[in-house]
Amino acid sequence: MSDKQGMLIVVSGFSGVGKGTVVQLVFESLPNIQFSISCTTRKPRSGEENGVNYFFLSEEEFEQKIANDEFVEYTKTFTNYYGTLKSEIDKPLKQGVDVLLELNVVGARRIKEMYPDSVTVFITPPSIAALKARLIGRGSETQDSIERRLREIENESKDIEKYDYCVTNNIARTCADEIVNIIRSEHLKVSRQNLKNLFNE
Ligand code: 5GP
Fold it and tell me: Which among 48, 57, 99, 145 could disulfide-bond with 61, CB atoms 3.0 to 4.6 Å apart, if both were Cys?
């Protein structure tokens, strides 16, 4: 077992910014990082697997986990619950393994309060106007859902300044490399290194 704690990396970004692709590329570069699999009550999208992308739960199952105090944080957006299980982060952290969490701004704020050493990264699009236009032009969503997402963008924008880092997803590979650099640099911080080992050996 490592005598060094793992690091928590929280990644957030507006809906439609391409977070999933960027995070996937980060894992390709840093395969030893563990992804925190969240619980959700939303239905799986095509290609999503239970226990891989999320733990897909019923509302009753989710509420039972709340009652059992199994979540480090959870949130309810419009109609669905999302939550991070304590078990997804505590064990790897103790073993010195880094954990990456993909959370909304509420979850990111909560994790930062509870784990001040965590590193928070917000992914923005090259232009908010383009993101909004894409959302409206997609044609697959109701007017209600588009308006809700636009409001969400406005609300989340106000929280960006609370993040440690902000990266732009212009080219996914470049954006992922920037996050990889952030993680590597954070590990080099004196406060994160066990320098006493240097003298004891
Ligand atoms: P989606 O339904 O598109 O997978 O996720 C919707 C939003 O919920 C995204 O912003 C995602 O980052 C966030 N999210 C996913 N899991 C969690 C979680 O465990 N806690 C919180 N607070 N947000 C989450």
Answer: 57
